[in-house]
Amino acid sequence: MRCKVTSLLVFVLVVLSLNQLAFAQAAATKETGKQVNINTAGQSELESLPGIGPSLAKKILDFRQKNGQFKAPADLMAVPGIGEKKFEQLKNLITVK
User: Fold this and answer.
1) Are 46 and 86 within one domain?
2) Are residues 23 and 66 in the same domain?
3) What's the confidence (pLDDT) of residue 29?
4) What CATH number did the domain enclosing 39 receive?
5) Do 48 and 86 fall within a single domain?
6) pLDDT for 11-59, tens place per residue?
7) Which of 10, 35, 75, 91 has the least CB density, counted as fewest CB within 10 Å?
């Protein structure tokens, strides 16, 4: 019984933490009023996004050079290292226009 209660408490804390992260990202985007255009952004601008370090920014740049511009933000998931979870963190912070 104690294990179930502890597990439930941990689950609730994780959900609350993820919600706070989403709200913070949305607030940051609204504050600056600017999204990062993944079709024109350079290395440093891509690195300003949460969870995008030098290696992943380079993969985005290499993918864009090889395949052309992204047609939709969700196309970013075609870049190795960016799955649904990371895209969910980024989707309100990026644009292709």
Assistant:
1) yes
2) no
3) 45
4) 1.10.150.320
5) yes
6) 655 555 655 555 554 444 444 568 999 999 999 999 999 999 999 999 9
7) 10
- Domain range enclosing 64: 35-97
The single-letter code of the amino acid at 89 is Q
What CA–CA distances, in Å, run from 70 to 17, 18, 42, 56, 84? 31, 27, 14, 16, 16
Distance CA 53, CA 19 (A): 23
54: its two tokens: 């030098």
Total count of domains within the chain:
2
Nearest to 76 by CA among 44, 41, 31, 30: 41
**One domain, residues 42 and 88:** yes
